Amino acid sequence: MKRLIFLYILCIFSIYAYADINVTAQAPDVVAVDEQFRLQFTVNSQSVTDVSNLPEIPGFEVLYGPSRSTSYSMQIINGKQSQSSSTTYSYVLMAKKKGTFTMPKLTVTVGGHNYTSNAVHVKVLENSNASSSASSSSQPALVKSPTSSSVSNKDLFIAVTANKSEVYEQEPVLLTYRVYSRVNLTELRGDMPDLKGFMVKEIPLPQQKSFSVDTFNGENYYTTVWSQYLMFPQQSGKLTIPKIKFDGVVVMSNPNIDLLDAFFNGTSSSIQQRKTIIAPSLDINVKPLPEGPADFSGGVGSFTIKATTKNATLKQNETLDLQVCITGSGNVDLLKAPKVEFPADFDTYDPKMTNSTKLTSANMNGSLIIDYLAVPKNKGHYTIPSIKFTYFDTQTRSYKTIESAPVEIEVLKGEKNIYADKQREILAKSDIRFIKTGEVKLAQKADVFWNTPLYWSVYIIGIVLLCIVFYVVNHRLSVKGDSILMRRQGANRLAIGRLKKAQQLQKKNMPDAFYDEMLNALNGFVADKLNIPISELSKERVAEELTGAGVAADLCDRYLHLLDDCEFMRYAGGADKNTQMDDVYHQGLKIISMLDAVIKKNK
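User: That's the sequence. What structure does it adopt?
Assistant: Structure tokens below.
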């Protein structure tokens, strides 16, 4: 019995130990014909005892595999220890034909139990560079960037499509702007102009664009939907969506860059090229709606109607709240409130309309809620007849009339409103309003503060204080708002601080740190004093700005030579670094003082 209990407990622990085993398959979503890629199966355990063979995959060639690798990690966080291990089986495949394929599943055995991986799908596109020289790359790229420094309209363009080319008035049209790119596009701006004849609603899309690979005219591109609009034509005829100008920024490698120049002078190894992209125009044929009934609501789409009330039983002179909800898809924002036939004994008021809509790529969905308020004057049982709503159905291309169910109202006897009855009676005969009679309560006139000498004294003092406060606040805001002035005023303070730090480094015999700080002091002073961004701080720019500020050529040359000396001493070897620190420090202090005097005089 003890042995049986022990075996039972052991089996239970074994089941729990391997209950969370899973096999995860990974592969790229899109590849090209003749492109090699990796298919991996990862098991979150190192206790794999058996692995099934990968079957032959139609349309793919297995170049290598399987290769096995294991990993193990342990973490201790807040005294709690956690560990994880995994085993990965990798295969190298080559796609041989175009299409969408499902990779086979892999089965592994862990602790006597079999576990199967998930299914992954791979889309294979035609290799758009198949005609290029095979020597250029042993593994063709899915999308190749242009080799020249210019970006053509074939490398980057925007396609404009509409889901319908012919519609009725008020029938929605989905307009899509899709970007196709074979370059490194980092920025793109373009706004939809005001369109005549359309009510336009922009469909919200993620700000962070996600590019995927697709084929256009036999070429592979990175593509994404940049913007989408749902448009409701307000008039018939041929309506044109005009061309839109997009301004983009493309980052390309700089083939003429010198690596040493890039290292010492901060020159970028890439160049930015601005590209203007014109999205083409598009024509939409809009047909007029057929002649409809007199009670046409203006709705185009598909709708339902429902009428409800929160207080089907109420008393005389209480307010009845009748709510009509029209739900569906279409031009919900342009619907008109249907007419409700209240009984003659009801006083009615203007309805309140509330729209609730949601945009999708298919249509505008939502509801129009209309609250009707009415006050019954007499008790009794009343019926509010069915409320009719007529719209144009885009599916059947015809007008439809839908009705809500009748609403039954029970009005009980309430307190009679004599005042309201008299007022209605008088208003029915004339425009004189009823005057309520009764006891009139008079209040004694109190002493007033208005127009006394104390009042005028407080008034004048308050105006003077307000002017002073306004002047002080405005002056402080103007000083803080002038970022260029504040930067120039702080240039001397920052330079002095850096020079003091350099002097301390000199005393500590730390030459490398000393020359770094001297470079920061010299570059930082000129950048702050002349308002030059650090990213644009090149020697040519500094020389140009100093000359423009009235600095003499010899002083400018002394400044640039001192920069060269600091850079050379910082990165050169030898013992001369220590002997020249004192001379470099005093030269830097003198040159910064002279530059400050000249720039301050000319500014």
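The first strand starts at residue 23 and ends at 26.
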